[in-house]
Structures are given as C-alpha cells and as structure tokens.
Amino acid sequence: MPHYLCRTCSTQYPESGEPPARCPICEDQRQYVPESGQQWTTLDELCVTHSAVIRDELDGLLGIGCEPDFAIGQRALLAGRILWDCQALLNDEIADAVRDRGGLAAIAISHCHYYSTMVEWAHEFDCPIYVHADDREWVMRPDPSIVYWEGEERELAPGLTLLRLGGHFAGGQVLHWAERRLLLTGDIVMVIPDRTHVSFMYSYPNLIPLPAETVLGIAGKLEPWDFEQIVGAWWGRVVRRDAKAAVRRSAERYVAALEGRLNL
User: Fold this and answer.
1) Mean pLDDT for the chain?
2) What structural domains and CATH numbers belong to the chain?
3) Shortest CA distance to 141 belongs to which of 88, 70, 69?
C-alpha cells in the first residue's frame, strides 16, 4: 500500500489503501486547505512527474529540490553529512548525489511544514531524524528513525548544532554551522526579499504575526552564536553578510511595528 503525500504541504502519511480523510498540518491555522480541497499523490507518482534540481546554494552548501515546484516549494540543504530540512522528491539521481558527498549521518528539520518524505530519506541513508520533542504531535508518519530531542541545544556533529527557537512552531529549530559561520533557518527566521532583514511569523500564508515578546526571545537566543550568513528555505533566500545584525535590527523593527512606533 502507498504512503500518500499531501499535495499542499508534502506531508507523508502511513501506508493506506485510500488517501487520508484529512491533513491536520493543512487544517492548522498556520497552513491552509486549498479551495479545491485536499489532494494527494505518492512518491512513485512524484518521481514520474518531477525531476531533481541539485546545485550549490552557496559554495560547499548543496541544495536539493525539484521541478516543477511541489507543495510549499522548499529545497533541502546538505551541510556536511547533515540533511537540513527536507523536500518530497527522492529518486536515484538525488540519492547518488548525496552518496557522492559521503551520505547522511543525520537529518534535521526546522518544523513540520518540511517533514515531507523525511522517513523515506532516513530509510534510504540509514540515519536518524532529529525533531524537537515540542513538535512531536505534528509527525504524521511515526517511525523508529525519529529522535525527539529536548532542551535548547543539540550538537549533531562537531560544529553543527541545533538550536530550538520556537516562534512559528513550539519546537521550531535552526542549524548553526560554526566553521562556515552559517545559520540555516527554514522559515523559523524568514529571509525576506530585500535580504537586509528577516522576519518572524506565526503563519506566513495566513499573515498571522508573532507577539513582540516571542520575537525578542528568538533574537535573544541567537545573540550568543556567531554567524555571518543566513540561508532560508527557498532557492536564493540568503542573507550574505552581517546576518547577526540583520536579526537584531529586524526584531527591533518588528516590535516597533507592533507597538505603532515604526516610522512609516
């Protein structure tokens, strides 16, 4: 029996003879059910309709996505032997490209909108998936490969550390790569089009902001960490310089807007 994939958010479900009756990820107010209703596909179908996109996002930081875009349209990143975030397509071309770079030691995902086919990836590369325990309820396909970690920091490999920031989701996490002075954020910290600022939201598609206290808390948790660049969830969403200051001034601007102090 197939493991059905939600076409809207790419979440994969346990095997079943029929598509699930609903997608709790999409029904949550941070996502949405399309006006046309919930629609489903499978990884086998995706391998026929979509092709791999594999290219460097930055020098030495491999991006892995697909075309045409599927669901939210994110791409995954290969940080050393850690797969950061996930996208639905996993075919022979992608698997070979990852193995050519040493395979995977672990998978870590910012939040549930990018869980996608994470279990398929874990089985293919025989590695664990690190999800923060605060987001356990959003895992739609349970599997022994999933490690629910607790606390605020978890080192996955020397210099590669998960940081729980919360915000968008309670267990929202980012990956700090010390050697590269990089912060990989998905959209827990959203890289916005002008690249000089970032943003923080409870729901991006439904435009629900976060409270000022939460935004300041996120910025505060990042203060002890050194990073020059931020890489977000989509191709080209990169703050290329002075990223730590961008987080600081973005949090200040966000709070000023909430409090009516932003100079418009």
Assistant:
1) 97
2) 4-258 (3.60.15.10)
3) 88
